[in-house]
Amino acid sequence: MIKKILASIGLCLTCVAINVHVSAQTLPVGTSVLDDYYRREQLLGKLDSSISFSIRPTLLGVKNIYHPDDTTKDHSIQFAKNGLFAILPLNWQQQFNSNHPYGWNDEAMIPARGYQTMVSGGFFFKYGPLGVQFRPEFVYAINTDFTNFADGHSGDDLRNYYGYHNNIDQPEVYGNGAYKKAFLGQSNISLTFGAISMGLSNESIWWGPGIRNALILSNNAPGFKHLTLNTVKPIKTFLGYFEGQIIAAKLDASGLPPLNVTRDADGTNLYVPKRIGWRYYTGFNFNYHPKWINGLTLGLTRTFNSYHQDVHGLSGYVPFFIPYSKQSTSGGAEAGGLGDAFPRDQNTSVYGRWLFVKAMAEVYFEYGLNDNSANLKDFIGSPEHSRAYIFGVRKMVRINNHENQYILFGTEVTQMSQTVDRVARDAGGWYTHTEIRDGQTNLGQIIGAGIGSGGNLQSLDISWVSGLKKLGIQVERYEHDVDFYQRYFPDINGNSRKWVDFALALQGEWAYKNIIFNAKLQHIKSFNYEWILKDYNSSQYYIPHNDVYNFHGELGVTFRF
Known about the structure:
Elements: H1 2-17, H2 34-43, E1 55-56, E2 77-79, E3 83-97, E4 114-127, E5 130-134, E6 137-141, H3 155-165, E7 179-183, E8 188-193, E9 196-201, E10 206-207, E11 226-231, E12 235-237, E13 240-251, E14 279-290, E15 296-307, H4 314-317, E16 345-356, E17 361-369, H5 376-381, E18 387-398, E19 406-415, E20 441-442, E21 445-446, E22 456-466, E23 469-479, H6 482-488, E24 500-512, E25 515-527, E26 548-559
Antiparallel strand pairs: 1-10, 2-3, 3-4, 3-26, 4-5, 4-6, 5-8, 6-7, 8-9, 9-11, 11-13, 12-13, 13-14, 14-15, 15-16, 16-17, 17-18, 18-19, 19-22, 20-21, 22-23, 23-24, 24-25, 25-26
């Protein structure tokens, strides 16, 4: 059934590609201010409602994509008959953490304490079907030392930490001393025919309708090299609109251990180095916007992660039609002979977004599985096994007697930790894997939800918005690495030992002529930071003297040519 659906989608894409004309630029994922501006414009009915914002970057149908407040002037240079050249905005982002690393969805930036900055810029060139975008990034971080898990824990705790985190490339301490590195950033070379594009890219990809997090792909990690075949705008058919993307990517390791301490007090080595070599990561994302239901988008994603040295055969490089159930898959190293023919990690998710233009609102969700069921009976019996989900709501309310001014309400919940099903059958943490021990990461950062494996987040935003201007507050509650905590730190007097961050932020965005500013001032209180026990005795419900305060600040300036 899945094969027939995907084949039908592919036929639709091919048949209509030659009938759609595309000439404008796409907006890179994470573009300061503009990324969220266009999504708000869609809520107001000023942007094509068939755009799902669930496969990005995508074409938005806007001529001066970086100058929505100056549409009377063409900021690109036209040449020949089908040629275009544009200088991309110069972007300077700065970040500061006073006590320990905090924040995500910052591309090539690293988890670090202290000051950090990223500069990017470049150009876009198009001639006929050929498009070239060169937008490198340079990152510098002071990367100051901070209290981490290795401080204040026993040798048993360190052994437990490595026993779990040896199965993912996610260093808590990103090297020693200052960090500086240049990246290809949001660069690509593509050939576009109608609404279909193919090419080589290093751009960040965002799959799914989430805003604070995405289960499969986001801009949390540095962009990675990948081949892509994708739509650049929704394709209209007699059934409705379709969007899609297929990628084949190269993921790299950081080469760093989980902690800066790799041996216990007895000198026993705790760190098990990862395999040498890059990983082959491939997957698809297709969605459908029904003709008969305005604003509704339904989507499906599936990805595969394996060491390139193990990949062989066509089904290894293009594994999309492998059955979902383990029982239907021959070979494998798992108990009972269930699993793939070689070590490979899979994720899948379904998502939906419903846009209500008249109400200036949207509702969205993503539901994913980290571990395939043995068969249909297994799935029906335990549909929550290995699940993670995202659910969000946004609404804009017009301010009376004030033209183009609104109050924006938004809330999003991300749940990555396992359910109570783990008691009967542990599914392992999202993005971790006992055989693909780098996990689903690139250069030491998770390519999906930035809150990490086992993380849970509840977020609330209330803002005043007017065009490119936005002023508001954000409140968040963030549980760290719950799957690790539940396995190795059984609850002491209830849930008193959870590491939970409560964050309150003031945030703003402002445009002045060719310059766009963005800023965030965030106060964070970390309860039971790093699960360290201080002055604890069994008669106490709450563990005292282990709360730390952290200030997270962001300041960005974008100059538009």
